Structure formats: C-alpha cells, structure tokens
Amino acid sequence: MKAIQVTGYGGVDKLKLAELLVPEPKDHEVLVQVKACAINNTEIWMREGAYGTESKSGWKPEGVDFPRIPGSDIAGRIVKVGHAVNETMIGKDVVLFPFTSSGEPGHEHISEDMSFLGSEYDGGYAEYVVWPADLCYEMPLPEYTKSAVFSVSGLTAWHMNEQIQIQQGDTVMVTGANGGVGSLNVQIASRVFGATVIAIVGDLALEERMKELGASHVLSYKSGMLAEEIQAVNGGPVDAVLDVVGDPLFSTSLKVLKNGGKFCTSGSAGGQKTELDLRTLYLKHITLYGSVLGTRAEFQQLLLAISAGKIKPVIDRTFPLEEAKEAQVYFKNSGKSGKIVLLPEN
After folding, report:
1. pLDDT tens across 139-169, in order?
2. How far apart, in whole angstroms, are the C-alpha atoms of residue 265 and residue 267?
C-alpha cells in the first residue's frame, strides 16, 4: 500500500511517501480501507515537536517511534476482520474513534494510557489502517469525504461545549471560527445548545459563511477595538469563550467575559505561551478549562447530531494522498474555511 510516513521531528521534508505491506488485523481488530483522512493540527504539531521537547514529543512522555504514519480523522470501509470479530462487519462504512484508553466510561480522554491514532499508532495517511473493531462507528453521512472531517475536531468541539455547560440563550465567543474546531464550535454552540455565538475571524469576507453556520455576530480579530466591539454587539460581557488561538486573543477573552464567566481552550495556533494577570482571574471569578478530545459517549452524541443534520461538514479543499506535504503547508495558511482532506487513490 501507499502511505505517508513521518521520519522524525522537523519540517514537511520529514514526510516521506512509502510503499508498505498492508497491515494484518489482530484478533479484535479490523482492516479499514481508507477513503478519506482529514488533517488536524495534532499531526502537524507532533511532527514539529510542539507537544514536548525536540527529542521527545507526542501524546506520551516517551515521544513518538519513527517512522510513523500520521492521520486520525478517518472514514473508510472495513475489508477484513480479525478472528474474534464477526464477519458481518466486512463491507461496513465507518469512522474511527481516534484513540484507545483503559479509562472508565466518561474518563477515557484523561486516562494515563491514552494512545492516539497517528502518534502511538499508525494512522490514516495511508490506503489501509488497522483499528479495534469496537472503536469503529457507522459513518454519519453517506459520503466518505464529508464523514471524515469530524472525529478529532468534532469530538474536541463537542467536549469543549459540554465543559462550559452552555445554557439556552448564553452568549459564547468562538475564536478561530473559520477553522476545523472553530467552525464546529459555532455550529454545536448555536444549533445543539442554543447559544448566541459571536464568531471571531480574520477576514470579514467570511461573515456570510459564519452566519450560515449559526453565528449571530462576526467580528475580525484585526480590529483595534475588538473587546469594545464584542461588548457592543452583545450588549455587555459574554458568558463563555471557546478558544483555539491562544496568546493573541487571551487577554481580550478575559476582558470580555462576565463575572463568573468560563474560558475553555483546546489549542494555541496563534501562540502557546501567554501572560496572565491573576487578579483578573480571581476578581472576576473566571473558570479556566483545558480541553482536548472527549469521551466515547460524546462521540456517539456527535455522530447522532451530524446524522440529524444539526452539524454540517465544512471543507475547504481536498488533496491526493501523495500531496500530503503541500496539504500540510496549505493547512497552516490563514484565511481558509473548514477542513483539509487527503484522498487515497484506491
């Protein structure tokens, strides 16, 4: 099979096209023919070493064993099963829950042994991947490309919304609203939980697109009066912030939050380190949440919402698998709207 391997920490030159043997499923695993694999920040940061030191970076402290096939947002068809798996699964179109864990239900995502597709396991930048049968779920939409864009970003967004406990009518500010997680935060907060959403983007040409996804207001982070504009359109401070940007909008986020407000972050695309005036935190009684991925129960809720049409895929463009380097470079460009998807030619 064709596969893209990461050969070490560094730039996109560390992505190499390889010809490998098709993996064999173990007793409780299935072999999935990958039809589409969406790109996430996770595999780029893993390659760049952003999760740890230059010599050790990954979901686990010991770092990644190279070469590694990245990719965790996978949609495909089961073509072979292990000895302990019912053969009726062959031919099913599925999406993959993106990590294994021994954590109890509701705590899978915070278990110490959580191991991630594309980091601890070979992932979906390939024509085939093996995965535990019980972590394969029925595809929520009839198209592979559209179904492949939810697993990591959708689960992360859903869990972020659950953590801040949105109530009907709350106002939620969403940063990076045109990106993978951000565009899903807009949809989930507004269409599933009934919040009023203020979407923060770079280019206001995206305003109509953001409103189609459920945003009530769209503002640009390039404004020199962003905090004032947020409070003006909302008629006061906001109830919560869902953030994927990090440093550039951190102080603004705390400034516009109401007393008792909630700030949830799942990314730091604009800067991983920031300054915090602790007085702001305690004088305003702000609660901070760190969030990534979520539980299997939340994944099932997400898939049901997608199937019901409450959450729609937002796709910027696709690339053939062989152009993974170009796809990752494009992914990091600002101004794109939605997910980038790799398509193996099988």
Report:
1. 999 999 999 999 999 999 999 999 999 999 9
2. 6
